[in-house]
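To the team - zinc ion complex, inputs and output below.
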Amino acid sequence: MDIHFQCDKCQMKFKVNAEKAGLVIPCKYCNAEIRVPKFKDKGADSMVVPDTKIRVRCSNCDSKYKVRDKHAGTIIACKNCRAPIPVPQA
Ligand SMILES: [Zn+2]
Ligand SMILES: [Zn+2]
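Output:
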């Protein structure tokens, strides 16, 4: 994958291998030092999955919560009364 960028000084456009992301390289044309921008992988952004929340209810004080699905199958403490609340699997 190549990174496309432009020299600040001479405005020449380049592409370099993504391995050079974040490095300072000399411009081929004017020899200015230019920093290669970090390669932005658009695919990576869209792979960020929003946290899935699980609804739980405290049987002791009737408080309702949403907890992250990483707590599924565990027992959390009620924020209100500290009673243990089993979190169901998502
Ligand atoms: Zn240049
Ligand atoms: Zn409670």
